[in-house]
Amino acid sequence: MINLQVKNLNKSFGGQRVLKDVCFDINGPELIGLIGPNGAGKTTLTNILDGALKPNSGTVYLNDERIDQYKPYEIARAGLGRTFQVTRSFRRMTVLENLYVPALAVGNEQDRKIVHDKSMEVLEFLTMDHLCNEHAQALSGGQQKLLELGRLLMLDPDVIILDEPFAGVHPKLMEVIYEYIRRVNDDGKAIVIISHQMDAIFSLAQRLLVLDHGTIIADGPPDEVKKDQVVIEAYLGVDEDEEENDAAASSGA
Ligand SMILES: Nc1ncnc2c1ncn2[C@@H]1O[C@H](COP(=O)(O)OP(=O)(O)O)[C@@H](O)[C@H]1O
Ligand SMILES: [Mg+2]
Questions:
Q1: pLDDT at position 238, please?
Q2: Ligand 2 center to 133 CA (angstroms)
Q3: What pLDDT, on the 0 to 100 scale, is given for residue 43?
Q4: Which domains does the chain have, with CATH numbers?
Q5: pLDDT tens figures, 75-104
Q6: Extended beta strands in the chain, E state
Q7: What's the pTM?
Q8: Distance, CA 202 to ligand 1 centroid (Å)?
Q9: Low-confidence ranges of the chain (pLDDT < 70)
Q10: Shortest-distance atom of ligand 1 to CA 44
Q11: Which atom of ligand 1 is nearest to the CA of 47?
Q12: How close is the Cα of 81 to the center of ligand 2, in Å?
């Protein structure tokens, strides 16, 4: 059974406290939305969970293994993976080569035939196998997001964090991305989606976590969180501003 336990995480940059005693658990293959205003600390939390940053205090356990002091590749091996707000594929490599990289560089698998077969399996899952020899830079924004998801799947993570997976995706492709997120979740993986796009969050998430000024202010079923007065005041009430910011971020990406 997948289990992530985040306990009392604190992170400061200079004198600024960006995460304040953040606590939450993930039990099993949940599909969770992590929302909150710009600057709330969502990306910082993700950077701590994937090992890019160390917390000032607090612990993270993944499947009963303490991971908060691990290096990023050790955390990837332990079973937690994330995508980035701005995709980080190797643009001059082919789609297939992009999938080889995490398996050969981070994974335990050194047998090229096994890595190749696994890559093709992932591409078939994403119905991108026909694109295997294309250069990553030739892909559309939505396909780049799928490739990034594919790179994560190469390491078979138990917990996946998607940081703004819909930024820069053409509206027509949104449903396609939803479908893959649901399929990865049905495949038994826990997924945390960070997004300002409330339509996406409310169509996908079974549970919402709301982060505001570094504090988790709500954690529960979307329908209940939506009605929570504290959440409305902190975040949902300023939805229009956030959408403007998001549109600006997407056009810049
Ligand atoms: N590396 C850093 N150095 C200094 N301040 C940072 C750094 N990363 C994030 N911050 C600050 O931490 C706060 C939270 O940022 P971030 O985690 O990116 O929020 P979110 O992803 O919720 O928009 C912001 O005030 C941001 O300026
Ligand atoms: Mg962010």
A1: 53
A2: 32
A3: 95
A4: 3-252 (3.40.50.300)
A5: 999 999 998 877 788 889 999 999 999 888
A6: 3-13, 16-27, 31-35, 57-62, 65-66, 80-83, 159-163, 190-194, 207-212, 215-220
A7: 0.89
A8: 25
A9: 237-253
A10: 17
A11: 17
A12: 16
